[in-house]
Amino acid sequence: MSETETALRRRFIFSSCWSVPDCLVVGPWLEVSVTVWFIIPSLSFQAADGLVKVQVALGNIASKRERIKILYKKIEDLIKYLDPQYIDRMAVPDAMKLQFILAEEQFILSQVALLEQVNNLQPFLDSAHIKAAPDHAAKLQRLAQIHIQQQDQCEAVTENVRVLLEDYNKMTLLLSKQFVQWDEMLTQLEAAKQVKPMAE
């Protein structure tokens, strides 16, 4: 057996004594890390003996002190109260959370349908054409620049058309006013012509 295999075997045997792979639990409030690779045989036994003595000493201290026994009993409550989600659970009970979920049932189902659709379309995303897209990045950039130029030209043409329409509307309004004036003048001339023969 090689030195590395021996070290691994000793580490496994040592850890299995407490049924904890990477740490020696001497109390709910204290964990002593023992993740050590015991490559030197003499040090491995010294470390194991030292840790056993520490565990025994802490166990004796805990058994003699009443406060530590009480603390053992309250550890679960302390862990529960220290949980950041404890207040959320108190403020929003499980029944209310269930009502929230049921109220969003249709939305959740619609999202599930969309996710299934995305999953069904996944082969298209993995197609050779999509994978070859980075190779066409230069052409795409050139097309994007042409598109921007065409947008600018379109905006310029739109502005020119707007100006022409404004001029057309102004000209139409002026012609309408002129035609009204001409109609009034023609009406007056016709009226004067009819009055003149009657006077003779």
From TrEMBL:
GO terms for cellular component: dynactin complex. InterPro entries: DCTN3. It comes from the Eukaryota. Signal peptide: none annotated. Pfam families: Dynactin_p22. One of its GO terms (biological process) is cytoskeleton-dependent cytokinesis. This is Dynactin subunit 3. It comes from Chelonoidis abingdonii (Abingdon island giant tortoise). The gene is LOC116836666.
